[in-house]
């Protein structure tokens, strides 16, 4: 016998109705999020909260706190310290030597989630003796995850997996050198938090806010359609100093010919680019 | 051994072949890839569980032995009608209706990323009856739910016979919820895949 499917399946029309409604009531534009992934997140929230389509719409319109919950669940906040160890290896050998020539190093980590990548970069800079002249800005659309990022406290279970990533980077130290471990959690050392700032920024609607030597935006583009990716690439281009570095996720390649002229490939496999041209 | 005529026709009409496997499926997938003709004219999508940070040479090994062009999925890759794609480690692979892949780093499903369920479910929506999916050996339940969604969408769904699977939990989980339209022995799967037009 076939198992009975009880879960409500959203149609494409319902999904676009939802997107329009959210834009109208909350000013938040999901229309250029990749459809399959966005739909999976909405299906997931409906299942977790046991909501039908009309309940979901009702809550989004009438319950002012619900949108924040919705936003937290829709945006993917899975991150790791030293995710893709070969990327950090490449940054260490191909980018850091150039960064070290600047008087001040400003880095923007866009879509930083709970801060793991910001602290990974902070550790990398510290191990290169560059902490004193560096500053890392971490931004995300999700205010809740930014609170976790500011706290810089991670469960030991996570730290164990991050330490394994660190090991694969081939960096000389040990991840736990940078943490104070208490009971079942680990807190990043204050000296590493000092030169960081976490704030809300929406890549879809907000403008640039500084000039950076490096921008890291990894595994964010996978959720955006191509046209939107291009508008954000423009924002990044305008936010980088001449010859500044752009780091995308290891499966996020710049394909457009126009942008290939603006960003020179530094490392093909890790998708590390350098701003060139005017 | 004679295969069901309907089974062969459904396979030949499929535009997409989905292969999902975990522990104990690697050698089998390798042999499938080696077997597929250069002119298969189907999109082949392979989801095999693997650990991040271990740079297994799966793509390289498979590509060297495949007569079809073969590549690891990258974000927004257009889906070609005669290519073998492998889901990358530490990402879920989704199929967008416009005909390209999307990747996702969200939570593992059944402790797995890539998850077979995630790709199968999105294929069920994108391809409906136009695909054949085969679930192979594995030591967890990933893939069963996705295979059911595919069956409900009209796809041809097949589970490897548990007696033939090195790890039988995965095909058994699919059979238990009646997700597999056909339960085939390994030799029958080989025979089926060779029945190309």
Give a concise summary:
The complex is a heterodimer of chains A (278) and B (197). Chain A is α/β, with parallel strands linked by helices and 278 residues long.
Please outline the helices and strands.
The complex is a heterodimer of chains A (278) and B (197).
Chain A: H1 12-26, H2 35-48, H3 53-62, H4 66-74, H5 85-99, E1 105-110, H6 116-127, E2 134-140, H7 143-151, E3 153-155, H8 156-169, E4 179-182, E5 185-188, H9 190-194, E6 196-200, E7 212-217, H10 226-239, E8 240-248, H11 257-262, E9 263-267, E10 272-275
Helix pairs in contact in A: 1-3, 5-8
Chain B: H1 5-13, E1 16-21, H2 26-35, E2 43-48, H3 58-65, E3 69-72, E4 83-86, E5 92-96, E6 100-104, H4 116-127, E7 131-135, H5 144-152, E8 156-160, H6 169-176, E9 182-184, H7 186-194
Parallel strand pairs in B: 1-2, 1-7, 2-4, 3-4, 7-8, 8-9
Antiparallel strand pairs in B: 5-6
Helix pairs in contact in B: 4-5, 5-6
Task: Give an overview in words.
The complex is a heterodimer of chains A (278) and B (197). By secondary structure, chain A is α/β, with parallel strands linked by helices. Chain A folds into two domains: 12-23 and 32-71, no CATH class; 85-275, Vaccinia Virus protein VP39 (Rossmann fold, 3-Layer(aba) Sandwich), CATH 3.40.50.150. Chain A has eleven helices and ten strands. In chain A, β9 (263-267) and β10 form a beta hairpin. In chain A, α1 (12-26) runs parallel beside α3 (53-62). In chain A, 41% of the residues are buried. The relative contact order of chain B is 0.19. Chain B is globular. Chain B has helices at 5-13, 26-35, 58-65, 116-127, 144-152, 169-176, 186-194; strands at residues 16-21, 43-48, 69-72, 83-86, 92-96, 100-104, 131-135, 156-160, 182-184. In chain B, α5 (144-152) packs parallel to α6 (169-176). Chain B has one domain (5-194): 3-Layer(aba) Sandwich (Rossmann fold). Chain B is of the alpha/beta class and 197 residues long. A seven-stranded parallel beta sheet of chain B has the order 3-4-2-1-7-8-9, sandwiched between helices. Chain B has a two-stranded antiparallel sheet with strand order 5-6. Classes of the chains: A alpha/beta (278), B alpha/beta (197). Chain A binds chain B through residues 1-3, 5, 12, 34-37, 40-41, 76, 78-79, 83-85, 164-165, 168, 219, 221-223, 226, 249, 251-253, 255, and chain B through 53, 73-76, 88, 90-91, 94-97, 102-107, 118, 121-122, 125-126, 148, 151-152, 177-178.
């Amino acid at each position: 016998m076939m198992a009975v499917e009880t879960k409500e399946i959203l149609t494409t029309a319902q999904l676009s109705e939802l997107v329009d409604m959210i834009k109208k009531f909350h000013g938040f534009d999901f229309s250029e999020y990749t459809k399959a992934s966005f739909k999976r997140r909405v299906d997931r929230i409906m299942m977790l909260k046991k909501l039908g389509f009309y309940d979901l719409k009702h809550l989004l319109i009438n319950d002012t706190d619900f949108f924040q919950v919705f936003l937290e669940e829709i945006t993917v906040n899975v991150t790791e310290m030293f995710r893709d160890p070969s990327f950090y290896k490449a940054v260490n050998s191909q980018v850091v030597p150039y960064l070290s020539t600047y008087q001040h190093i400003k880095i923007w980590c866009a879509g930083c989630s709970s801060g793991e990548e910001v602290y990974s970069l902070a550790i990398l800079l510290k191990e290169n003796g560059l902490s004193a002249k560096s500053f890392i800005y971490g931004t995300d659309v999700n205010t809740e995850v930014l609170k976790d990022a500011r706290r810089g406290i991670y469960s030991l279970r996570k730290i164990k997996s991050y330490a394994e990533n660190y090991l694969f980077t081939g960096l000389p130290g040990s991840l736990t050198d940078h943490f104070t471990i208490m009971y079942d959690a680990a807190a990043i050392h204050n000296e590493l938090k000092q030169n960081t700032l976490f704030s809300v920024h929406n890549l879809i609607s907000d403008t640039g806010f500084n000039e950076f030597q490096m921008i890291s935006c990894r595994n964010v583009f996978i959720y955006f359609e191509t046209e939107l990716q291009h508008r954000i690439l423009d924002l990044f281009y305008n936010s980088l100093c001449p010859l500044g570095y752009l780091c995308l996720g290891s499966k996020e390649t710049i394909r457009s010919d126009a942008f290939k002229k603006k960003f020179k490939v530094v490392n093909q496999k890790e998708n590390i680019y350098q701003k060139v041209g005017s | 051994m004679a295969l069901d005529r309907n089974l062969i026709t459904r396979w030949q009409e499929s535009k997409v072949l989905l292969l999902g496997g975990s522990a104990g499926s690697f050698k089998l997938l390798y042999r499938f890839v080696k077997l597929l003709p250069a002119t298969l004219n189907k999109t082949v999508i392979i989801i095999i569980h693997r650990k991040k940070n271990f740079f297994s040479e799966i793509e390289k090994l498979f590509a060297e032995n495949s007569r079809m062009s073969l590549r690891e999925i990258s974000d927004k890759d257009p889906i070609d009608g005669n290519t073998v794609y492998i889901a990358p480690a530490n990402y879920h692979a989704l199929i967008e209706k416009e005909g390209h892949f999307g990747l996702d780093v969200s939570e593992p499903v059944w402790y797995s990323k890539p998850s077979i369920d995630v790709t199968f479910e999105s294929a069920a929506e994108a391809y409906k009856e136009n695909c054949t999916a085969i679930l192979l050996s594995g030591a967890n339940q990933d893939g069963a739910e996705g295979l059911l969604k595919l069956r409900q969408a009209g796809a041809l769904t097949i589970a490897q016979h548990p007696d033939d699977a090195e790890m039988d939990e995965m095909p058994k989980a699919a059979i238990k919820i009646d997700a597999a339209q056909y339960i085939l022995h390994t030799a029958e799967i080989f025979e089926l895949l060779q029945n190309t037009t």
